Structures are given as C-alpha cells and as structure tokens.
Amino acid sequence: xxxxxxxxxxxxxxxxxxxxxxxxxxxxxxxxxxxxxxxxxxxxxxxxxxxxxxxxxxxxxxxxxxxxxxxxxxxxxxxxxxxxxxxxxxxxxxxxxxxxxxxxxxxxxxxxxxxxxxxxxxxxxxxxxxxxxxxxxxxxxxxxxxxxxxxxxxxxxxxxxxxxxxxxxxxxxxxxxxxxxxxxxxxxxxxxxxxxxxxxxxxxxxxxxxxxxxxxxxxxxxxxxxxxxxxxxxxxxxxxxxxxxxxxxxxxxxxxxxxxxxxxxxxxxxxxxxxxxxxxxxxxxxxxxxxxxxxxxxxxxxxxxxxxxxxxxxxxxxxxxxxxxxxxxxxxxxxxxxxxxxxxxxxxxxxxxxxxxxxxxxxxxxxxxxxxxxxxxxxx
Length: 380
Known about the structure:
Order of helices and strands: EHEEHEEEEHEEEEEEEEHHEEEEEHHHH
Shape: globular
Number of strands: 20
Largest sheet: 9 strands, mixed
Oligomer: single chain
Structural class: alpha+beta
Radius of gyration: 21 Å
Helix content: 25-40%
Distance between the termini: 41 Å
C-alpha cells in the first residue's frame, strides 16, 4: 500500500497553504484533489483577506505575486435607519484593513510555489472514505486504490466515514448573489457593509471594479437572477443607496448560505481545516481568514512537536490552541447575521444606536477593527 506522512484532501487554497507551510518539515506530503490539476486557478470567486492573512502569505513567500486591492476604510451602515461607523486603517498604523484578491490568482501562486518546492498534487483523486487506526489512517479513493498516512488533513468538503454526525448546521434561508460591478466614479479603496432586512450587502474594491455580495431570500434570489443586467443594476443601486453609483454590472452567480462547523476540528489521526472544519456566512469576510489562521497554527504545532504528525497529543494541542479564535469567530459571524437580518422595529433602532455608539467610542471601534484584522484573539 502507498504510504505517506501527511495526506491533504483538497488542493484548493486551504490545502495548498498547509502543504506550503510544512514544506521544510522533512515530511512526506501528498495532496489529493478530485479535480484536474490546476482547476483552482480558474476559480472565479473573490476573497476578502485580512491584514493578518497578508502577514501569513508574506511568511509563505507568495504575497508579492498576488494582484491585491487594499481596503483602506470600511463603511458599515443599515438600510433605512440612522447610525453608521467607519473603520480606517490609518487609525491602526496599517497600510490597509484588508485586501481583495481573486481566488484564482491566489491558487495559481500557491500551485507555483508547491511545484517549486517539489510537493506533489495528485489530480482526479477523489477521496471517498477514511478509516483511522492506531498508527495510520486509510484513505479510500474513488478509483479503488487506498493510501495510508500518519495524518489525514481534510481541507475541502465532506467525506464518508469522517464522523459527520458531529457537524452543527444552521440554514440561514439566504442566498448570496455575487457579481462584479463597475462604479461610475472611483471607489477610493473603500468597502461597504450594508445591513438590510433581507441580509447584508457587501461592496468590496476589486481592481477598478467592485465585488458585490448581495444577500437575499431564496425566492428573491431567484428573481434577482432572472433580471436582465439593466434591471438588476437598478435593483442593486436602490438596495445599496447612493454612496457609490454603479455604471454597469457583470455576470451573476448564486450560492446558498449556511453555517456548518465541527465543534472539535480533530479526530483520530485526522484534522479538519477550511470548509471541512467550518463554513461561515460571508458577512465580515471571515471564512478564508479563519481557515488560514487554522492552517498556520496547525503547521506550527506539527513543526514544534516533530516526529509523528498525527499523534493524539499533537492534534489535541492544535485543537486547544485554536478553540478561542474558532469559537469566537463562528459566534461573531452568526450573531451579526441573526441580529441584523430582520426588520423587528426595536432591534432596528437598537442597531442604529449601536452603530452610532461604535463610531463615537474608539475603544469599541478598535476592538471590532482588530478582530477583523487578526481574529478573535486580535493577534497577528
């Protein structure tokens, strides 16, 4: 049977980042991906990266290769109500609060770095099952082959036999309609998070354009997808307001929004990372940033421990070190969605007062900004 030290399931940005973070560990690492090699390079999604994520990607040596648009200010407001707050990078001595990067260019930079490091990626290798034992975990592949590894790092999706009964799920009854819009005037490297009764609307600077994440109920999302570009542009402008005018909008896509997470991200000789560990609502753009903090911490724990990467004490240390940030970020995004995605009058007024107070109280505003830049622990 083929044997490796670590088998990473999923060669998207999360799985590739883990492999790159462990490239000097002296471990035999294999990435397994169900898709063709390089498929992630064509990923059309746009990612909001925190300042802390930039620091990690700089440590991995790939930041300089990324076409990133800085977010210098973030404007937070609610539709139809008073109260707003503005977060400004200059208050924190940082060049930006975050950055907007295409998932495809990020995957390409990671793929190139792995090729240079000689870490193999096996494509068309869908993992259909895991069977963990005392000394290794057996990964079953769709082609009938099996692989033995001392640690299975699951970085994408769900796998049979992976103790999915532990999953906690909440359906937000919302869909995200995503697109790229061209503004009539420059965006000034500003991002907008606008809360509405239907769900949050995010407008992110992306090159000269803006990435749009328009949250709606499933039925409303059906209607939005059915509109022609001119009609959708008018709907988007009405929904967003007049703080920025849009000249045109590109092709739209949609996906359902759910919270899904594992309370414990480790099992016997198994660690779950990225969407395999938690899938968050896109509000505040925390999903990939939390995943990258998990990946970096996991790699550092394995490097410090040495020896067997799948040892129970090593995995327990990782889970313990990540508990505060993981649980805090999951609660933070979930609370934002449930608190702001409704039209209850008392809450509407309380939200406005809260945003107004946040703008007037620097310590509270700094807490939110640092959380967005560095996570629940507000550490780089």
